[in-house]
User: Fold BatD family protein from Litoribrevibacter euphylliae.
Amino acid sequence: MKTLKLKKTPQQTASVFHRAVLLMASLCLLMLSSLASALEARVDRTTLPLNETLQLELSGSFSAFNLSIDLSPLEKDFRVLDNRRSTNMQYINGSFTAQTTLTVTLEPKRAGILTIPSISIEGESSKAIELKVTKANNSISADPNQASPVDIEVTLDNPDTWVQAQMLLKIKLFQSVELYNLELLGVKELQQMGLTVEKIGENKTYQAKRKNVTYHVTELNYVLFADTPGTFKLPEFIFEGQMPTRASRYGKRLEARSEAITVTVKDVPKDYPSATWIPARDLQISDDLADTVELELGDSLNRNLVVSVYGQEAAVIPNMPEIDSDIISVYTDAPELNDQISPEGVTGVRMDNIALISKKPGQLVLPEIQVPWFNTTTGKTEVATLPARTIKILGANGQLPDTTSSTSAAPQVAIDQTPPPFANQSASDEFNNQSSESMTGSSPIDTKESIPTWFLLIFGLVCGIVVLQTGVIWRLYQRTPNIEEDEHQVIASQNWDEALPEDFVSSFRLIQKALQDHQLSRESLPEAIQSLIDRFRATHYGSSKSDASFTANDREELRQQLKQFFDKHSQPNQGPTLYPQ
Assistant:
């Protein structure tokens, strides 16, 4: 069987070649059109007032699905209020096309010539568009006598002030129409200027009338502190919002701007006497003690020191002087610092709770406390003073011993103000001369003549009485070597086989009495016993008893340790002492 072979004619060969060329050209044109297609940008208008919005449309052959677009370049001169997407797909003569449009609603931030920058989407970029933005027109009608629907009023109580002094900033926002998307601009700029800004309370709302128009008023109050001296201007405060209109779904934006305020901050005066700078409207210091307080041995009291500074924070109040004395134990809690906010600004309050427990008879003088501060109202330095207080600790007979020393408490130092009896020879000689004159009824004794025996006896008797009163005999008696006696002859006020009282003051008196009977000081107690006593005291005097609880088991442990301690240091009783050791 023969195979029939068909031969193409020259005309048929040319036709196939022409078709291939046309196909290649179509593909090239398609590729060129794809490469030439750029992101198209257009706006609904190029001239508009500041308080109106415009529409920006970006169209291109990009996919709307999982689209990531960066609109941050627009935020320099515009507010981006909204953006939405739409896609148009077509299939014509076997060709599929898709066109996506991104619609962005923009609002200008300022008047002038603004530029919508180039936007890039999936490698395609739009062209920049120039706009002309005119000043906003806040008037609802053309009547110039009609009040503006929005207004702002900013006041500063003391634009001429001192460094770190309080300034009260009051901002009032007025609106006579219904607005939404309200915004106040300028407060963040205060912090960027280096000012300390603190809001006072909640916003106040009320009504006020201006030009026969009733306004809804919102009042905001702030406290400002400037840390560096100099002259500067507060930033411009802008109150803006959108008023609903039929012309635009986003409404019409209204705004009001404040007038500039110049602030002058002066440095600390060179003649200010203290290292702690306290600029304020007022400063007061007080406590709850009388001028003179009497305590029995072992008694205690609380001293509450309160320092209030008006127009300043509590952190600027300095520490109170410490009390250091050998006749009284001092226990101080951590100070409480509180800042109270009111329409007058900040009021700082510092409270110091000090527990004082008497341990020896005597007299303690708490010196007066002085706190220098600067009055920002008068521009002068003043000193707040708390008068001195006297604390008398009575002995066993309910009176102060004649020779009890008077101590003045000062920071870190206790000063003894009373000299010992017959501290100088001239006083002793004067006493001897007066005694001899009163006994003989004649002129002073001649040193060349012998002194009568009866005079020596009387003089010795007088000296013995004086020495007995000053406690010298008891001191000598205590310092003599102990005669060996039975240990059971020691008389103690507390039977350590019995439980300690639940009251701290009663227990502390028993421990103090036992220490005196054994001629020991509190410092001789072991650390474990002192720690238990401190916890017992903290429960009684502490501001938070839950944090320093002292249980019955702790009190029993303290009793057992005291029993072991005093049994170890037991010695014969030598009677009560006039002078605590």
Q: What stands out?
A: Helices lie at 10-36, 187-192, 425-440, 453-470, 472-479, 504-517, 527-541, 552-568. The two ends are 147 Å apart (CA to CA). The chain has a mean pLDDT of 75.
